[in-house]
Amino acid sequence: MDVARVSGVSYATVSRFLNGNPHVSPEAAERIAAAVRDIHYIPNNAARSLVRQRTQTVAFVMHGEPESITTDPNINTIMVNANRRLSDAGYQLVVLIADSDEAGERIARLVRSGFADGWILNNLQVDDPLFTVFRSVDAPVAVSGAGYGESSPFPTVDIDNREASAELTRYLLGKDHRHIAYICGPEFIPCASERLHGFQEAMGDNFDPTLVVQAEDWGRASGQKALLELLQRLAGASSDTAPNVPAVLKQQHIDALVCGNDCLAAGAMQYLIAHGVRIPEDVAVAGFDDSPDAQATNPPLTTVHQPIGQFGVQMADMVLNQLEGDEAPSIVWLPTHVVVRHSA
Amino acid sequence: MDVARVSGVSYATVSRFLNGNPHVSPEAAERIAAAVRDIHYIPNNAARSLVRQRTQTVAFVMHGEPESITTDPNINTIMVNANRRLSDAGYQLVVLIADSDEAGERIARLVRSGFADGWILNNLQVDDPLFTVFRSVDAPVAVSGAGYGESSPFPTVDIDNREASAELTRYLLGKDHRHIAYICGPEFIPCASERLHGFQEAMGDNFDPTLVVQAEDWGRASGQKALLELLQRLAGASSDTAPNVPAVLKQQHIDALVCGNDCLAAGAMQYLIAHGVRIPEDVAVAGFDDSPDAQATNPPLTTVHQPIGQFGVQMADMVLNQLEGDEAPSIVWLPTHVVVRHSA
């Protein structure tokens, strides 16, 4: 009403302008904008939320170390797809980054204070303190990557990491590979150990724990580093000795390498090629994800396809279900399949 | 006060719990949480904002097509760095995605309604309707990638794209390359045309407009596609004929290829290698950005380094300056330099 008075424009027109309705003449818009500046009009988003008891926002929490958020090839695809779905339903997606304990605490405060109408938790780990926070509030939640599987306390979207990894391994066994090395994704990430378990199951008696090595994170550099570590260990060499890569592989009869994701595989592959190893002739290499990396490598990567965008769509739908008072499914399993390219 | 009454816990303790203060006994926390559930406690974030007239949030707007947001290798690095800086200053970064006209309109409403205390606009283009919206409100703003340069209406962080590209080109000229092809970033992106201008300036009389081709977006696939289009055009071939790549390059004396960014270069390089062209022996290739892609290619990419994370830090600082009542610099130029690897 103050803005209407100062600008000399009707309350209804001011309201239309402030709500972004395009039916405001340029002249009126100009006068309203000037009045807003002159009287230092106070933001009314808070007041509006209080009246409606809804914020019309859904928060998307990105969990992970800063390094993993900047190198994750999937996270923005999930986010953009969730955004589109929520946007069609009239909700604004707001993304919050949980990359430190302090960020987690700030987000916990936002959860308790009703910052958003619903919450999408991407890559939230089972031991994250936010799990407890969400148990104590009544907000719609959907999660992915928590590794809870069927026992998740919140509606969950996931793939069957174990079975998908086993299927990829059976494909390699079918190509007569028997001495298969494995670069596992980082510790504490449930899907990383699920993928390793699937590999181990499918390998059966051929599984050799000395050929398994753990990467520090999901990035390419870690793939290189993990492979180097494995080769040094197999050669009985110290960590400052460069191994003769083709010789070590031959001596250990290693004929294939499976990696916890495509980035690790891309890094390992670059290292192998730089040391004169031919792929797939000398060693077959396979990844997981079917992210853009899988087609950017040379040769392109044999991998497991997962429908990344669908994580976003399904988590958005689960939150929308709950906002509309419906029950969300407790878990949605997304389909995967092996994609054969030239690396294996 | 309702929660305090129902839970039998003091108002001060309830307030501490709801504000995320850890000094609440587990037993009290349990009782407060139960009361919050029982009485369906109404979110108080809106009320708190109204009392304080500050939301303690800064919005980060990601502009671009959905495809460019999912393939941009820099955007999350900028976001994570802005988040850290704002977080240290007690502000919560909230990310909004402006990937469609409707999203832009929704964000315009949020701007007018005081959704956030400040705004970071990443890759906002000069003709974006949000520019007009921000002119009409009194909120702290910082922008990057707008291509306004010194004449930006808002505090701006940028690099000198033209000079950086010229420097890279002079490096190639110094290596005796004279017939240099150029894959330009997408139309309407100011930095893409600035980089082309810098290339043209440095080439001088050696500049040959028939060796310039435009990519559809910044992704690897577009790099491949643009190169194919250029080769077909140079060979006078129709778009459904596969050119003899080494023959066309030789016939046209093309000895180097500069690309508007690293992803375009990675895509073009993959295509060249797949068609038997040796890099750098037959054709030198250079990119721009020094993104992770530049080290993932084989051979690694000669490129222009820009300090990506600093875009986030500087934009955050500009908004914080304004929030504290200080003046932000109208423009901060970030330094760049040529990084020589093995591709050129």
From TrEMBL, chains A, B:
Ribosomal protein among keywords: no
Molecular function as annotated in GO: DNA-binding transcription factor activity; transcription cis-regulatory region binding
UniProt key word Phosphoprotein: no
Domain HTH lacI-type, residue spans: 1-52
Superkingdom: Bacteria
Keyword annotations from UniProtKB, A to Z: DNA-binding, Transcription, Transcription regulation
SUPFAM superfamilies found in the cross-reference section: lambda repressor-like DNA-binding domains, Periplasmic binding protein-like I
Pfam families: LacI, Peripla_BP_3
Classification via PANTHER family: HTH-TYPE TRANSCRIPTIONAL REGULATOR GALS, LACI-RELATED TRANSCRIPTIONAL REPRESSOR
Protein name: Periplasmic-binding protein/LacI transcriptional regulator
Phylogenetic placement of the source organism: Bacteria, Bacillati, Actinomycetota, Actinomycetes, Bifidobacteriales
